[in-house]
Design brief:
single chain; 427 residues; mainly beta; 2 helices; 6% helix; 59% strand
Length: 427
């Protein structure tokens, strides 16, 4: 009876995730290039620790960025993790501030063991966000252009790409695990470039282009675990994601219209073209280490290198460059098994991250710096928990005609752990 209720709850969350995946609507001008702004990857446990994952393994949580960690899933257990986050962005162009906010789906993950040391996991999460809007109204001063009034130039993007993952991890030896994820990236981004005159006597122009992607890739990882006296440990991990090809469809349409027209059917299509081609995503290498004491302290750091200079993204704007990310963080539990203080059982997390943009903006590589905080709040008489996560980040600057973004992201996830495969003696 209890398992049936839990299964119904999980199915409800799964349907919700499918319905809202990719609907992130925070607007950022940096989303105009390439495949948009890449989404932060990881569960709220790892994101609250600065985004580290290579040396993280835990039998109560899932770490899909390092599939070798699936081998740590307890036998006869089932893990479910569903998260939502709320983001607020302040954009400064050197003179004015602009704000954008949205509540978004973050991830849905399921994990269970096949046998001891052999685990399986699947999930879905956003991959990138292509939402932006840039608008400027001015009086045109162009040779040969005799138009009264103003011209409003608007550039807008909507949509994004999602990622669905299924993987397995296996313990080759007592202190060595390997794993692999297969994943599919899919979705589309539509970009609008509109030039509208502030007079009914002129025709306006709108260019609309939609870039649709779908492709299958994989990544392989390994983790080395070194146990030390007094339940101390050192874990090291490495994950390699080869470059991948994605089937790409580019739809491009140019329309002419006037404010006098009152129906969309009155728009005059002056150009349409559909092109089928192939996009190429680059390879990525992630490596890192963690150390500490079991059920007490975990400290770790990661470095991620992505060779975006080798990327090919037909139908998208931008020049691409290799990018590096640095992540560091820690988790501290005062007394995991305390019978006297609930606050001593809470998992306290802190971290920081540095990220380089994969696209060049005016020939400049934009850098991002962030501080993260979070906590794992255990549920009563359960190994399940609620995870909270906060990320305070800044990106870019107002130099060279760029924008400075200040971002606050707050997330809440439900991490359910249950022994589903044991027959209860009492119901």
């Amino acid at each position: 009876m209890h398992n049936t209720r839990r299964l119904s709850l999980i199915c409800l969350f799964a349907l919700l995730a499918v319905a809202v995946a990719g609907q992130k609507n925070i607007s950022s001008p940096y989303g105009r290039y390439g495949v948009g702004n890449l989404s932060s990857q990881g569960t709220f446990r790892t994101l609250a620790m600065g985004g580290i994952s290579s040396g993280i393994r835990n039998n109560l949580t899932l770490n899909y960025q390092t599939p070798a960690s699936y081998s740590s899933i307890d036998t006869a257990s089932f893990i479910f993790d569903f998260g939502l986050d709320y983001g607020v962005l302040r954009l400064n162009d050197g003179d004015l501030n602009y704000y954008s906010s949205d509540l978004n789906f973050s991830h849905l993950l399921l994990g269970f063991p096949i046998m001891k040391g052999f685990g399986v996991s699947a999930g879905i999460m956003p991959f990138s966000n292509g939402n932006y809007i840039i608008s400027d109204t001015f009086s045109p001063d162009m040779p040969g252009l005799d138009v009264a009034g103003t011209l409003t130039e608007t550039h807008k993007g909507v949509g994004g790409y999602q990622k669905a993952v299924i993987g397995t991890g296996y313990s080759l030896f007592r202190y060595l695990s390997v794993g692999m994820n297969a994943f599919i990236i899919f979705g589309d981004i539509t970009r609008y470039n509109e030039f509208a005159f502030g007079t009914n006597s002129s025709f306006n122009t709108r260019k609309q282009s939609t870039n649709s992607l779908v492709g299958i890739g994989y990544e392989a990882s390994m983790q080395l675990m070194v146990p030390l006296p007094e339940r101390r440990f050192v874990n090291a991990g490495l994950t390699y994601t080869p470059g991948m090809n994605l089937r790409t469809t580019n739809d491009e349409m140019v329309m002419r219209y006037s404010y006098i027209q009152t129906s969309l059917l009155a728009f005059d299509t002056i150009y349409y073209d559909q092109t089928d081609t192939t996009s190429r995503f680059p390879y990525t290498i992630r490596g890192g280490i963690s150390f500490g004491k079991e059920d007490k302290l975990t400290v770790g750091a990661d470095i991620v290198y992505s060779a975006w200079s080798k990327a090919s993204l037909p139908g998208n704007y931008g020049t691409y460059a290799n990018a590096i990310s640095l992540n560091a963080g820690a988790e501290y539990i005062p007394d995991k098994y305390s019978n006297y203080s609930y606050f001593n059982r809470i998992e306290y997390r802190i971290g920081c991250h540095y990220d380089e943009s994969y696209a060049l903006y005016g020939g400049t590589k934009v850098k991002q710096y962030g501080l993260t905080l979070g906590a794992g709040i255990p549920l009563r008489k359960s190994r399940s928990r609620i995870s909270v996560y906060v990320d305070l980040s800044t990106r870019g600057s107002t130099d060279g005609g760029l924008y400075k973004e200040s971002m606050l992201t707050a997330g809440l996830s439900l991490n359910l752990f249950d022994l589903w495969f044991l027959k209860a003696k009492y119901d």
